[in-house]
Specification:
695 residues; alpha/beta; Rossmann fold; Dimethylsulfoxide Reductase, domain 2; Barwin-like endoglucanases; 3 domains; six-stranded mixed beta sheet; six-stranded mixed beta barrel; 24 helices; globular
């Protein structure tokens, strides 16, 4: 099997690659190439977690790569911002003009320049390597990349010390699996395979989620709680575990900190109180606690949906306390998994070179608040007005909250915007220059996973199409135009890939030189690393009570914090906008990365709003009707689908559609707000009140 394809041949060759997208599965790919053309992308049957299967999205990766709408040459805006009117230009002209504009701004204040990027690729090479070096050397503003997982990370860090957890392969042997805040069939398909193995062996599967998603449909039980009430449910489970003595007293004594304080807090949350807050039956809570306390090994698969509300980090904190109470960590098939990222060790300093800041401390702008921040003027508190934004691996006009403000910010005539992308996205429509980037089949990269424990290599399977260039090469060329002569800007993608995997015990002897040939390699270490304690907290214990949180003036115990927008916290707002809206991903989308793929868009049909029949009847809305969903931040036009898969008083706006593919040029993020989570400064996408009426 070939590591890379560089010559033409009459017989197909197979290239080892990796899925780059923002999904915990990080699949190992096999790309078949004939005469320089990728003819298929399939899952590696030998990779244990991929086991030869891909999601419907990545299975169509050749369609994405060879799509007629691919950007294949640099484009310069020739019409008004937002019009999408561009003319082709040479790389030389584009780079010269971009560098001249950035030099002019940087001469006044480099912090007026902002990078904006996220998970369009999760690779260490094409993500934040050469790009980070460029912006550090420039002295540009820093970006706080919190839009996905920051609250959950902060919650885990407070209790267990980092993004650590079960080996996903061990879920096949669990006897109880709580799938909490996750539609695994859509967003974590290969975990679902292990859950199904456990189910066939007699395990009980319970889905805890505000709507009856595809995963809930396939579980034995669905706990359909109100959005943002997960911490209350977790405390009620603790109440029952303690009351019935379903506890591992030895594990608690040896490996936890603050049990007495946690017990006192938990006793304030009997099932009756939690049932009223969560909107679920009391007996369902009691039975869930009984199952969790008596079926061993018990496992929890959390995902990031539950932390996209005001109290999201504290909800994760509360849930993360549960495994230690029953000693679930003792078992290979017990404990929890939200993210496995900290089982790996990447050398981010070598990749991103923060030393290039040379002692400067630029301001940091949170990517969640980009709508407000692009509309701010200069001030002592904020710093200089943002004059330039370089967007790569992201589509902020579609994914950032309060979308009308985001659009207004990017529509500023005095804002210089450069977008690196594969397609002319919503954001690209507002750019001054659009630069064509390579897809995963056309460049080198190295990946870790946040859902399993394998490093993966991505070898270039085909030559770049048209004039497309890797992100790394684009930033190399810009650095040269800016006069940056530091040796790191001359490093090749192969050299960068070799730097990604740190020399660290967590990685064992895994190195790029062998990984690019084998395609993947598993981390060393025990399947149950917390069986005997050894948490990554300052105390080395599972910290129910956190001194670090106390030192910052926050509650040292997990808190129950209800949403910013709900009847309890904002009754006047709830009277005007009585429906809670959540906006989980549609099955055939992954954020906005696959929005250009025609076949996937056809499978979704059009932007939908799931509305409970009782709520529809009160508003005179028929199934299939076009409705206007609104709040004080704006409105969006969707098609109503009447369904009891959502709760009374709750709507589900499936996302994330590109704005330009929506009936009125807007999507559900028109309605979401820019307030931040309790910890981690993340977004609150599922903390949103709306009203619905026939359009």
């Amino acid at each position: 099997m070939s590591a890379s394809a560089t010559v033409e041949s009459s017989d197909p060759i197979v290239v080892r690659a990796a899925c780059p997208h923002d999904c915990p599965d990080t699949c190992a790919l096999l790309v078949s190439v004939k005469d320089g053309v990728a003819i298929s992308v399939r899952g590696d049957p030998d990779h244990p977690t991929t086991h030869g299967k891909l999601c419907a999205k990545v299975a169509r990766y050749t369609e994405r790569t060879y799509h007629p709408g691919r950007l294949l040459q640099p484009m310069k805006r020739v019409g008004p911002k937002g019009s999408g009117q561009f003319a082709p230009v040479s790389w030389d002209e584009a780079l010269a003009d971009i560098a001249a504009r950035l030099k002019s701004i940087a001469a006044r204040d480099p912090e007026a320049i902002l990078p904006y990027s996220y998970g369009g690729t999760l690779g260490f090479v094409q993500g934040e390597s050469m790009a980070a070096r460029f912006f550090h050397r420039l002295g540009a503003s820093l970006l706080d990349r919190t839009i996905c997982s920051a609250a959950g990370e902060a919650g885990l860090n407070a209790v267990i010390g980092g993004k650590l957890g079960m080996d996903v392969e061990q879920f096949a042997h669990s006897k109880l699996i709580l799938i909490w805040g996750s539609n695994s069939i859509t967003s974590n398909l290969h975990f679902w395979t292990y859950a199904q193995q456990a189910k066939r062996a007699g395990a009980k599967l319970v889905c805890i989620d505000p709507w009856r998603n595809d995963t809930a449909e396939k579980c034995h039980e669905h706990v359909q709680l109100r959005p943002g009430t997960d911490a209350a449910l977790a405390y009620a489970l603790m109440h029952e575990l303690i009351t019935h003595d379903w506890l591992d007293h030895d594990y608690i004594a040896q490996h936890t900190l603050g049990f007495d304080a946690l017990k006192a807090r938990a006793m304030e949350w009997p099932p009756e109180r939690a049932a009223a807050v969560c909107g679920v039956p009391v007996e369902q809570i009691r039975q869930l606690a009984r199952d969790y306390g008596t079926l061993a090994p018990a496992a929890i698969r959390m995902n990031y949906g539950l932390q996209r509300v005001r109290g999201g980090a504290n909800a994760v904190r509360a849930i993360a306390c549960l495994p230690a109470l029953i000693g679930a960590w003792r078992h290979e098939a017990g404990g929890l998994l939200l993210s496995s990222s900290n089982h790996f060790k990447a050398d981010t300093a070598a990749l991103e070179r923060p030393d290039l800041l040379a002692g400067r401390t630029p301001r940091t702008i949170n990517m969640v608040t980009i709508g407000d921040d692009l509309l701010r003027g200069s001030s002592p508190a904020f710093g200089p007005r943002v004059e330039a934004v370089i967007v790569y691996n992201c589509n902020p006009l579609a994914v950032a909250p309060e979308g009308d403000k985001v659009r207004a910010g990017f529509a500023r005539d005095d804002l210089f915007t450069v977008v690196l992308d594969h397609f002319q996205t919503d954001t690209a429509d507002y750019a001054d220059y659009v630069l064509p980037a390579t897809t995963q089949l056309e460049h080198v990269d190295v990946h870790k996973s946040y859902g399993h424990r394998y490093w993966l290599a991505n070898n270039a399977a085909i030559a770049p199409l048209g004039e497309a260039k890797p992100n790394t090469e684009i930033f190399r060329l810009l650095a040269a135009r800016m006069g940056f002569t530091d040796p790191c800007f001359a490093e090749s993608d192969e050299q960068i890939a070799a730097q990604a995997i740190a020399a660290d015990a967590r990685n064992g002897d895994i190195a790029w030189a062998s990984l690019k040939t084998t395609g993947w390699a598993k981390l060393p270490g025990a399947a149950a690393p917390l069986a005997h304690g050894g948490f990554a907290t300052p105390s080395g214990k599972c910290e129910f009570w956190s001194q670090r949180e106390a030192d910052t003036g926050r509650d040292p115990l997990p808190e129950v914090l209800l949403p910013y927008e709900c009847a309890e916290t904002t009754p006047e707002l709830a009277a005007r906008y009585p429906l809670a809206m959540i906006s989980p991903p549609a099955r055939n989308f992954l954020n906005t990365s696959f929005g250009a793929v025609d076949s996937l868009r056809a499978l979704e049909g059009q932007p939908l709003l799931l509305l409970h029949p009782q709520d529809a009847a009160r508003r005179g809305i028929a199934d299939g009707a076009t409705v206007r969903v609104r709040n004080d931040r704006g409105s969006v036009q969707l098609q109503a689908h009447l369904s009891d898969r959502t709760r009374v008083g709750q709507v589900v706006g499936l996302g994330i559609w590109w704005r330009k593919h929506s009936p009125d040029g807007k999507n559900v993020n028109t309605l979401t707000h820019q307030q931040l989570t309790d910890l981690g400064a993340g977004p609150c996408f599922y903390d949103c009140l709306v009203e619905v009426a026939a359009a």
